[in-house]
Design goal:
By secondary structure, the chain is of the alpha+beta class. It has three domains: about 25-115, Uridine Diphospho-n-acetylenolpyruvylglucosamine Reductase, domain 2 (2-Layer Sandwich), CATH 3.30.43.10; about 120-230, Uridine Diphospho-n-acetylenolpyruvylglucosamine Reductase, domain 3 (2-Layer Sandwich), CATH 3.30.465; about 235-455, Vanillyl-alcohol Oxidase, Chain A, domain 3 (3-Layer(aba) Sandwich). The protein is built from 16 helices and 20 strands. The strands form four sheets. Strands 12, 13, 14, 15, 16, 17, 18, 19 and 20 form a nine-stranded antiparallel beta sheet that branches. Strands 5-6-10-8-9 form a five-stranded antiparallel beta sheet. It starts with 7 loop residues before the first helix and ends in a 10-residue tail after the last helix. It comes from Aspergillus carbonarius (strain ITEM 5010). One of its GO terms (molecular function) is oxidoreductase activity. This is FAD-binding PCMH-type domain-containing protein.
Length: about 500
């Protein structure tokens, strides 16, 4: 493993890797010896199997030795203390939407399933919503709707709260409010020692900063206090186009990204997608305007392109985020990259997209499969808001130009195609990265929430942030529990 100078101090405190792998169920037996014995489930139980089925991607549905479902921060504290002391390996899962196996699950170990901790409480006097880590965004939006407020969260309602927030979190409101993590007022965290602490601007401010993008390197967040804001009806939906409009779409997308600062209420996701059931390779735009205004001028470049169908309407965020959800249970791979907002890069990406669809057709075994290439703006306005709110550890403020993010999203239903789509997903990203570098349009940032296990998003955070995250991880987890005993997720010690 190649280790940066920044990560070396953290690795130096890790004990020898002689951890139990739980072949005999020792770790599960340890949990049964606590007051949580009735919340520990084995493969023969319905609760265990229902928990596994909640994982979004079929290929990420692993079979741990047991699953434990805490109901409170105190439960989480007891679990972590027991597992850390016995050097057991474990995984932590909230929504389970990450697509690669082992990100939030484990074989031969314990999975801490946070899904029972799923409530949202609105504190009107403080203008804050307290959200527990097992909640999905659809439930958060639905709970807050009667109060006329909302929070910046996932654009797919089925996505879990916790991983989204500690990975940064891009929402419909990023151009107005910064990333979702920038709007967290307080994190309640269970540390490896079992201690429960609050991290905010005045209490443990270093941990507070590190959690805004630093993922699961410090402990388990058991509550998020998010700043709310007034929620009006949005205007949005999906617009479907023929693939022949690609050149116009790219021109409109580059222009839109360069002008978000002129109207930060506008949001765009461009999607090029092939589906084996329809046999069609189409273009779809998710257009959202976060005020009740139809056909805002910000979307002019897209609106002038003739479309096939449109669902654009006035709706609540709960409705719009349910429309953007994907079908759970299929096998998935995501790979992602960030580039300068350059039409040449986008044209190359779509050319590769079309070529890789043909490669898949020649080899695929699945009766259902789909290949999507998604384009999203990451203008410098996003990070400017982050800095105004105290900053995060994503490191985007060091880039002066407007950026675009691409996501290659492949799904299929036959396990025999796992190697095929993994190879295609890694290869198309590699080709695009090489091309972008050749024309000076590359960028090192990798969005953690979309990254594949073959990627290392922390490397793109910048050396200053790598050093800071490493230092905070060492301070709050001196024995390296979340570096070694929790093998899932992206580790600062592996930069």
């Amino acid at each position: 493993m190649k280790v940066s100078i920044a990560a070396a101090p953290l690795l130096s405190i890790l004990p020898e890797a002689n951890f139990l792998v739980d072949n005999m169920g020792f770790c599960c037996t340890t949990l049964e010896g606590t007051s949580l014995r009735d919340q520990v489930f084995y493969p023969t139980s319905a609760a265990y199997n229902e928990s596994v089925k909640q994982v979004f991607a079929g290929n990420a549905r692993l079979s741990p030795s047991c699953i434990v479902q805490p109901h409170s921060a105190e439960d989480v504290s007891m679990i972590v203390s027991a597992l850390a002391q016995t050097q057991c390996q474990f995984a932590v899962r909230s929504g389970g939407h990450t697509t690669w196996p082992g990100a939030a699950g484990i074989e031969q170990g314990v999975t801490i399933d946070l899904s029972m901790m799923n409530s949202t409480t609105y504190h009107e006097d403080k203008g804050v919503a307290s959200v527990l880590p097992g909640a999905r965004w659809q439930s958060v939006y639905k709970t807050l709707e009667p109060y006329g407020v909302t929070v910046p969260g996932g654009r797919s309602g089925a996505v879990g709260v916790s991983g989204f927030l500690i990975g940064g979190g891009n929402s419909f409101y990023t151009a107005q409010l910064g990333f979702a993590c920038d709007n967290v007022e307080n994190f309640q965290v269970v540390l490896a020692s079992g201690s429960i602490v609050n991290a905010n601007r005045t209490s443990h401010p270093d941990l507070y900063q590190a959690l805004k993008g630093g993922s699961i390197n410090f402990g388990i967040v058991t509550k998020y206090d998010l700043k709310t804001f007034p929620h009006e009806t949005l205007w949005g939906g999906l617009v479907i186009y023929d693939n022949s409009t690609t050149a116009q779409q790219i021109e409109a997308g580059v222009d839109f990204t360069n002008n978000i600062h002129n109207d930060p209420y506008a949001s765009w996701i461009g999607m090029w997608g092939y589906n084996s059931v329809t046999g069609q390779n189409i273009v779809a735009n998710a257009l959202e305007y976060t005020k009740p205004v139809a056909y805002a001028p910000a979307f002019e470049g897209f609106l002038k392109i003739p479309n096939i169908t449109s669902t654009m309407r006035l709706a609540r965020i709960y409705d719009l985020t349910n429309e953007l959800g994907q079908t759970p249970g299929y096998r998935y791979i995501y790979t992602t990259g960030t580039y300068k907002n350059d039409a040449t890069v986008l044209r190359k990406a779509i050319d590769l997209h079309n070529n890789y669809i043909e490669q898949a057709k020649a080899q695929v075994k699945s009766s259902y499969w789909a290949m999507d290439t998604m384009i999203q703006p990451w203008p410098k306005l996003f990070s400017q808001h982050s800095v105004e709110k105290g900053g995060n550890v994503l490191g985007l403020e060091r880039f002066d130009e407007n950026l675009i993010q691409l996501l290659f999203d492949y799904s299929w239903n036959n396990q025999g195609d796992d190697d095929l789509f993994r190879r295609l997903g890694e290869s198309i990203l590699g080709e695009l990265n090489e091309f972008a570098k050749s024309i000076g349009a590359d960028n090192e940032y990798v969005y953690l929430n979309y990254a594949d296990k073959s990627q290392n998003p922390f490397k793109g955070y910048g050396e200053k942030n790598i050093e800071f995250i490493s230092r905070v991880a060492k301070q709050y987890d001196p024995d390296g529990v979340f570096q070694v005993q929790v093998p899932g997720g992206f580790k600062i010690s592996e930069v």
